[in-house]
Amino acid sequence: MPALRGVISSVPDVHAYSKPARTFTGDFYLTHPDTDRLWFVLGDVAGKGLPAAIFMAMIQEELEHRIASCAATQCDPSTTMQRLHDFLRPLMPQNRFATIVIGHLRDDGMLTIANAGHCPPLLVRDGVIEQIDSTGPVAGLLRQSRWHSVTRALQPGDSILLFSDGVAEARNHDDEEFGVDRIAQALMRASCGRSIIDAVLADAADYRFDDDVTLLAVTLPFESTAN
Predict the structure, then answer these.
(1) Distance CA 89, CA 160 (A)
(2) Contacts of range 33-39, beta carbons closer than 8 Å, 24 or more positions apart
(3) pLDDT tens per residue, range 14-49
(4) Helix, strand, or coil (residue 101)
(5) Burial of 88 (0-12, 13-18, 19+ CB in 10 A)
């Protein structure tokens, strides 16, 4: 009989970091634990400064209601995205939109994600990195917009990292971008939510952040191991 990787804990390890580039931020994130799953969101409103921050606050408040409602009915993240888009579109100017990732992770390790034009979340499973690309357009902009969700089965020790573009687009003194590959390298070295974010920030220490920076890491910990 092959060795077991472990037994999934009912409480995922979650850690987040957010730092505005200026006084106000257009980034937002939230987590919402429910009976058998953890809901999570990370997004970015196009633009900078106070206008982006105002729409960010509006989205954050609406998301808290939407996520609570969807958690109660166990709806799909793509449905949550659609409802948020329908709320935003009549309110946002034509030059404003939001990129958003909405997902949930069930206690049995099943991950479900919808991605509205945001930086692809990075998933590490058994030492292999996978990107979760967009599953629909940005939110709040186009009249006809639809999203679908993707699912992945996670095992103890697997992690997912969500991040805003301010992380990937940070530049060093040679004007070289930090990039997604360096984020992935940091993710591969880490073993829990806090260590993932610490590793990314340590590797980016010599890079200049000109945009808001937000990271959200979720790891399925080992509750016990067996040989």
Answers:
(1) 29
(2) 34/71, 34/104, 36/106, 36/107, 37/71, 37/104, 37/105, 37/106, 37/107, 38/12, 38/14, 38/104, 38/105, 38/218, 39/67, 39/70, 39/71, 39/102, 39/103, 39/104
(3) 999 999 988 889 999 999 999 899 999 999 998 878
(4) strand
(5) buried
β-bridge partners, 101: 42, 115
Please name the amino acid found at residue 144. Answer: Q
Which tens digits make up the pLDDT trace of 106-146?
Answer: 999 999 999 999 999 999 998 899 999 999 999 999 989 99
Dist CA 180 CA 194 (whole Å): 19
Give every strand in the sheet of 27-33, ordered side by side: 27-33, 37-45, 98-106, 110-116, 150-153
Distance between CA atoms of residues 155 and 15, nearest Å: 18
Note the pTM of the prediction, 2 decimals. 0.91
Q: 5 falls in which pLDDT band (50, 70, 90)?
A: very low
| The residue type at 146 | R
Residue type, 145: S
